[in-house]
Specification:
Layout (H helix, E strand, L loop, with lengths): L2 H4 L21 H4 L6 H14 L7 E4 L2 E6 L15 E6 L2 E5 L5 H9 L1 H7 L4 E3 L11 H7 L3 E3 L11 H6 L3
Parallel strand pairs: 4-5, 5-6
Antiparallel strand pairs: 1-2, 2-3, 3-4
Length: about 170
């Protein structure tokens, strides 16, 4: 977990959380270290509290909507982006793949997972991995996903933007 994805955690206050999905294989020491500044320490402490309530399920349903969760546990822990949860949502024949910050190394492990490979194939909507940045473009994954639409959440095009590659692999 990086601060840019969890910094709103403190605003939850007394909100009752029914389900939460987090990378359960990470230990507190993997993301909360002596170098963690005091200004963000509270955020990570709250994240840690929530991680203890985490569901272990890889799939659950809300009515007819199916949620499937994948997390690469076999990659090193020095780069937390590769431990982001990837979510595949299936609803009435529509398929959405939300990648989080996963970069190439974790995408390679996902493609080896038969369930992921099958569920993610030919998606309708892809939220590009790691905001659509160069560090997360993995063409074999894009070929498997074969998205109709790809959303890129990176701001202004920078040196790390690869919008043209996503454009070539989206319909």
């Amino acid at each position: 977990p990086h601060k840019d994805h969890i910094e709103d955690i403190l605003s939850l206050g007394s909100v009752e959380i029914d389900r939460i999905v987090l990378p359960t294989h990470l230990k507190k020491s993997d993301y909360l270290t002596s170098e963690t500044g005091s200004n963000v320490k509270r955020i990570f402490e709250e994240y840690h509290k929530l991680s203890k309530k985490c569901i272990k399920s890889e799939t659950f349903y809300i009515e007819e909507i199916q949620f499937n969760f994948f997390c690469s546990k076999s990659v090193g822990k020095s780069h937390l982006n590769n431990h982001s949860i990837t979510t595949i949502i299936l609803y009435l024949g529509f398929k959405i793949v939300l990648f989080g910050d996963n970069e190439i190394i974790s995408q390679k492990t996902f493609l080896k997972d038969e369930k992921f490979h099958f569920l993610s194939k030919k998606c309708d909507l892809l939220l590009a991995p790691h905001h659509g940045r160069r560090s997360a473009v993995y063409v074999p994954m894009l070929k498997n996903l074969d998205p109709k639409i790809t959303l890129i959440s990176d701001g202004n095009p920078k040196n790390t933007s690869v919008r043209s590659i996503y454009g070539c692999h989206s319909k």
